[in-house]
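step 3/5: co-fold with UFG
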Amino acid sequence: MRALVVGGAGYIGSVTVDQLLQSGHTVTVLDNLVSGHRDAVNHDAELVVGDVRDEDSLARLMASHSFDAVIYYAGYIQAGESVLNPGRYFANNVGGCIALLSSMVAYGVGRFVFSSSAAVYGEPESVPVTEEAPVRPVNPYGESKDMVERMLPWHERQSDMRYISLRYFNAAGATDSRGEDHRPESHLIPIVLQTAAGQREFVPLFGTDYATADGTCIRDYVHVSDLAAAHILALERLETGSGVYNLGSGSGFSNRELIETARTVTGKPITVREEPRRPGDPARLVASNEKAKRDLGWRPAVASLEAIIESAWRWHQAHPKGYAS
Ligand code: NAD
Ligand code: UFG
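step 4/5: write tokens
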């Protein structure tokens, strides 16, 4: 299959590109490198540097390639920042997808896999959350993912396009060659590991007064290689129909539990400074992954939080300055 991976120079996309190539697919990456890295893109993939919202360039790319499928990772990803700057999120996350979907319809590309998010659920009434739970985002980032999800069935009705929307919970961990390098980094695990490595003085712990057992937020961490594998399965599943799937481990860990696990894995002291809540943070996000297991045949292979953090720590030690090093 000839696949276009939009945002394939980023954290999750770059791992998926590796797996697509290993599975024998031909890959083109379109990425404007706003947060991705040239060095994260496998040399066996074609890299086109450009913005997906540049409609003329996109049309030229589509016309010259005859893609069978598009996997879409592009966008801004920080829920907290999206509360402070909603327009930035709607313009890129929704605007980029409108341009891409229109171009797919124009050039007859029939398979689409979308990086959605647990953020569409907002503050779920109960966890683990199933795909049938109400979609009620509590930040513009989650709203932007929901807006794209709601556009997809309309495109399906009007064209031959089928879609799979994958609602990731918290992507984490690393492979031997790819890891998490967002700048500025906003995610808990890399910040905790940078603190363990002495690159930061402390971990700011956002919110200790949530209605959880230890007062901190609970998240469901899923290894980046397991997320990537789900995209390969989704491409197969698209032969039979469209769908929406949660991708999470099914287990939740509080921020304090995660930091304690990182102390054990790294053997380092990790100083924490308690701070007020970050805007737009739900207290609990834990996936039911039963539907993805049943329909996609997906199973998270890296099953424990320790193993996820160990992989991230190995990558961090090998690349203390991220892709620059
Ligand atoms: P990332 O920032 O590492 O990757 C996004 C990539 O998209 C980057 O390479 C960036 O340069 C590119 N990009 C952004 N805007 C673009 C544009 N207009 N045109 C072309 N390229 C553009 O993020 P990630 O952590 O790999 O996340 C990938 C996707 O998965 C995102 O859509 C995110 O919302 C979603 N997601 C991530 C997580 C997570 O925990 N990281 C969880 C749920 C959903
Ligand atoms: N946190 C801290 N200190 C930090 C960074 C984070 O306390 O320095 C806390 C956050 O407040 C939150 C938890 O750690 O309670 C996890 O925060 P992250 O920023 O690591 O991740 P989020 O849960 O906010 O969001 C991530 C992705 C989103 C995705 C979501 C799905 O960034 O794209 O997971 O659950 F939608």
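step 5/5: annotate
The longest strand covers residues 111-117.
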